[in-house]
Structure formats: structure tokens, C-alpha cells
Amino acid sequence: MRRAVADTGGDANLYANTIQKLSVEPGLTDERRGQLCLMLFVVTGCLGSPGPAIGIVDDFATEAFSLGLGTIETSVGPGFARAVRPSERGVQLGLLRILDGVAQPPLLALSLAPEGTVIGALATTPNAITNVDVDVSREHLRIYRRGGTWWAQGLGSTNGTTLISGDTRKTSVIEPPRAERKPGVTYGPVKITNSDTLCLGATTRFLVLRIAGPHAQHDAKGNE
Predict the structure, then answer these.
(1) Where are the domains of the chain?
(2) Using CA atoms, how far apart are residues 198 and 172, in angstroms rounded to an integer?
(3) Strands 171-175 and 141-146
(4) What is the dotted CATH code of the domain comprising 93-210?
(5) What is the pTM of this model?
(6) Which residues have a Cβ under 8 Å from the Cβ of 100 and sit 6 or more positions away?
(7) Contact, 179 vs 193, CB < 8 A?
(8) What confidence score (pLDDT) does residue 102 get?
(9) 77 Cβ partners below 8 Å, 6+ apart?
(10) Beta strands in the chain (DSSP E)
(11) Helix, strand, coil % in the chain, rounded to nearest 5
(12) Which helix (H) or strand (E) holds 37?
């Protein structure tokens, strides 16, 4: 089904991420897990798009089993080696997924539109990035440019986001995990720049890179 979704121009990551979330959801029995996976398969095939199908499956799981497509809590691991930071005011940035310390093309351009780019396992907004691991929330992080500066803003994720500076290697918190957030505290956006590393949850890492121009060769889903 993932290949079929990709072949018809859809976001195959959305389908795969939903299967992953269902596979690790501790509140599901094997029978219910299989039922929801089968429902996702059938509804995606009928509608020709995983986005609406995910909403239907999520609503059914909430009503029938009193649980939705949540995100498991994990712990955050170490960062990556030092990188070089050039001046970049006003330039366009992109993200490169890092998996087990190895870069995973393509380079994903960040949107210059006012709404920016949302990163999340089930994100369906324009320019969304969905190439993430299972502990990343459906809408985890928003990145946008304002006044020539790029910012990252947490979206209330389960497992939080940190940033490792490419210049100083200092780690700063963009948004703590939900279990560590203090009531009434607002976690504002954090400036990001070339060579920084964004750490979403325990294992999803993106290297921030300066790119040549306003148009990338690949879209945010990783399609050419």
C-alpha cells in the first residue's frame, strides 16, 4: 500500500507512520491492532489518500477503544559532531535526516511561506515533513522564517525537541517532553541556523543546512 500511495502522488510516510504507531501502541490487543491496520488499508485504498483515512481510523479507535493515535514516550540520546556555521541571515535553509549517524538524502527545503513547515508523523499541512520515527507526534515542530531569521516552535509534542548548536555544541530545549513541562509555562520559539541539529524525541535527527536558493530539488516528503 505504501508504494501504491507514493505511485499516485500521495504521502507514503503518513501511511507508514500510522502503521508504526499502531504497532507500538501498548493499549491495543493484537486483535484490535490488526483490526485498525486492516481498516487503514481498506479506507486508504477506497479514498486513494492516507490523510482522510487516518482521521477515520483515529476517530474509530477513540470511540471504540478509548484511545487515539498517540505517541509513546522515549528518552533523548546524545547529539552529533561539531559542524561549521557560516553567516546566513536571509538565506534559505533545508533539513537533512540523520539516521544512525549517516546522512539520508534528500535535502528537504523549509518553506518560505508565512506558515512555515510542520514536522510530524501525521502532519498533512502544505510542505509538511513526515520522514520521522514513531515517537514523533502527529504535529511535533513548526519551523518558519521571520525577518530573515529562522525559528523552531514546539507544537505540544509528547517527547519534546532539543537543538544542538553547530557552533558551540551547546544543547538548548525548544520544548520539553510533555511529562517535564511546567503548567502555565510557555516555551517560545528558538532560533535555528546552518549546521544546527534538531532532535525530535529520542531518535529523529535533522541537520540544518544552508541551501543554494529558494527552490529545492525535492519536496518535503522526500519525493523527487
Answers:
(1) 2-65, 93-210
(2) 10
(3) unpaired
(4) 2.60.200.20
(5) 0.68
(6) none
(7) no
(8) 83
(9) 202, 203
(10) 93-99, 102-109, 117-119, 141-146, 149-154, 161-164, 171-175, 190-192, 197-200, 204-210
(11) 25, 25, 50
(12) helix 30-47
